[in-house]
Amino acid sequence: GDKPLVYLDNAATTQKPRQVIEAISSYYEQDNANVHRGIYELSRRSTRDFEAARERVARWIGAPDATEVIWTRGTTEALNLVASSWGMEFLKEGDEILLTEQDHHSNLVPWQLVARRTGAVLRYVSIDEEGRLELESLDALLTARTRVVAISHVSNALGTVNPVKEIVERAHAVGAIAVVDGAQGAPHLTVDVVDQGCDFYAFSSHKLCGPTGVGVLWGRRELLEAMPPYQGGGEMILEVEKEGSTWAALPHKFEAGTPNVAGAVGTAAALDYLEALGRDAILAHERDLSAYCIERLSELPGVRIFGPAEVMDRSGVVPFNLEWAHPHDVATILDTEGVAIRAGHHCAQLVMKRYCVSATNRASFYVYNTRDEVDRMIDALRVVQGIFG
Ligand code: C6P
């Protein structure tokens, strides 16, 4: 269109800074070779970049050791890895998996699949009017049969920042492991997996200014050691015999096939970029925009805003509905005004069901957004109001 773009769909994916694009093209121009295989200089360089990126990620999330950092295609694959490998090995009939109504499908469906195959039972933590997990119900839901508690650090459909540390402690108290979907956490909050105490933490590079198709699973060493491989292939074996094989050491046991080396390099560049901005500054900026957005939205008639009223309990995600216009119509008209927001169920249909809506509008902010852009969205919503209101 002829209107300058206002991009407010950062929870879906972020735009890429020049530093990231240049790191990727420079890798392809100068260092490209397969990793961990060649005996020649170029492959050593590629392997060095790939492993340095792993170290970079370890620092970003406070992982004690980079060999606990596994490259995946993204959050979705990371969570499927845990459910398939850990779940299929350690869950049995009657065991309980505790999920939440708040979670993204990628932290629900893999566990549903494993439950069907193992006979494990699914339980759900409900959410209150403001989109917070109902932690009072944890006492009843966490039992000696609970083996896994899977939660998100931050909800993509509500913006709620969850008290992960407290939930992890309570999961551990009954002997369950805690799996944290950090897709909306790692890009926005300081993450320290040791302090948080979780057993697994997953996130995607593309939501923190990095490239698509690459992400991370961090896992606690003892658990990763005890788990069988997720996929078989090159890179992940020690010795192959006709009857079976032995596995490579961590992290390679979980990295079958040629990895996304350029993706790893781009991820490291993205983390350097964000670190230079400062993680506290990023979160403060997002919260300022959320607060401003909520304030400006409240000027409109018939507006319903989802998620916690307290802005310190949310990140840069503002879901809202307008009584007088369907979210898909809102997003379509906003698009003609040059404003990109997301409308739909946000892969969190349990959240939609909880609030009896089929869809919501969602504005989500990142480091480069401004208050002026929020104003542009409000102006565009006035155009919608002129048509439907
Ligand atoms: N949420 C959104 O618009 P992938 O697709 O694997 O990179 O991430 C999946 C995922 C998992 N958990 C949470 C909390 C997420 O927000 C997402 C991706 C996007 O909200 C696309 S549905």
Keywords:
15 strands; 40% helix; 389 residues; 4-stranded antiparallel sheet; binds ligand C6P; alpha/beta
Structural description of this entry:
The protein is an alpha/beta fold and 389 residues long. Helices cover 40% and strands 16% of the residues. The protein is built from 13 helices and 15 strands. The protein has helices at residues 18-31, 41-61, 75-90, 109-118, 138-141, 164-173, 193-196, 221-226, 261-277, 279-297, 327-336, 349-354, 371-388; strands at residues 6-7, 69-72, 96-100, 121-125, 146-152, 177-181, 200-204, 215-219, 237-240, 245-247, 303-305, 317-322, 339-340, 342-344, 360-364. Helix 4 (109-118) links the parallel strand 3 and strand 4 (121-125). The mean pLDDT is 97. Bound molecules: ligand C6P. Residues 11-12, 74-76, 104, 106-107, 152, 156, 181, 183-184, 204, 342, 346-347 line the site of ligand C6P.
> Mean of residue pLDDT?
97
Which consecutive residue ranges, at least 5 long each, have pLDDT under 50? none
Number of helices: 13
What is the C-alpha radius of gyration, as a whole number of Å?
A: 22 Å
Compose a concise summary of this entry:
With 389 residues, the protein is α/β, with parallel strands linked by helices. It has helices at 18-31, 41-61, 75-90, 109-118, 138-141, 164-173, 193-196, 221-226, 261-277, 279-297, 327-336, 349-354, 371-388; strands spanning 6-7, 69-72, 96-100, 121-125, 146-152, 177-181, 200-204, 215-219, 237-240, 245-247, 303-305, 317-322, 339-340, 342-344, 360-364.
